[in-house]
């Protein structure tokens, strides 16, 4: 028996194709039939969507960003989301650069620290994320090409299961605790506040 390996983009595209009853392909290079090109596009679309949510596996904290010679701070091209964490100014990404909404300027003189959610190539994602992206993409792909309620319902169940698996993986690898969630911490600390305020 062959030892299983992580899912490739080719395998993912073939999952999408078999969902609509098409034969798998052996390569993604060269001229492809329309269904293969659409499957690749849907897979990429869903991969971006899922990754932009921000997961432990594609998020870096305390990323140092320095102004370039022209005083601009350029946002890395593979950035899905960016949040500046060490400035009291309201700073956003605009035109591939950071923009200070407070001072209305692109000019920066100091280094900044950011939390960045990155886009990764499909090959670099953990398998549980690939599985969710593939099952979600399969449902969207089949809905667009077939519009079959029976296939839709079957794929929705698969997608929900894959999403649960991804959430479980996120919880296990990120080592979250209740105090890291504002809503939970607020409720837990309310008892202390009430006890000390009476």
Give a structural overview.
- The protein has helices spanning 9-19, 34-52, 127-145, 149-174, 182-197, and strands at 59-65, 79-84, 91-94, 97-100, 112-118.
- The chain has 198 residues and is an alpha+beta fold.
- It folds into two domains: 9-54 and 125-188, no CATH class; 56-118, no CATH class.
- The chain has a three-stranded antiparallel beta sheet, covered by helices on one side. A two-stranded antiparallel sheet has the order 3-4.
- A hairpin with a 2-residue loop joins strand 3 (91-94) and strand 4.
- Helix 1 (9-19) crosses helix 2 and helix 2 packs across helix 3 (127-145).
- It is globular, with a radius of gyration of 22 Å.
- The model has no long low-confidence stretch (mean pLDDT 89).
What's the total helix number?
A: 5
Strand order of the largest sheet: 1-5-2
What form results from the Cα inertia axes?
A: globular
User: Helical proportion?
Assistant: 40-55%
Q: How many E-type strands?
A: 5
| Run of helices and strands | HHEEEEEHHH
Number of domains: 2
The low-pLDDT segments are none
Gyration radius (Cα, Å) is 22 Å
Tell me the structural class: alpha+beta
User: What portion of residues belong to β-strands?
Assistant: 5-15%
The chain-level mean pLDDT equals 89
Task: Please specify the SSE layout and strand pairing.
Layout (H helix, E strand, L loop, with lengths): L8 H11 L14 H19 L6 E7 L13 E6 L6 E4 L2 E4 L11 E7 L8 H19 L3 H26 L7 H16 L1
Antiparallel strand pairs: 1-5, 2-5, 3-4
Helix pairs in contact: 1-2, 1-3, 2-3, 3-4
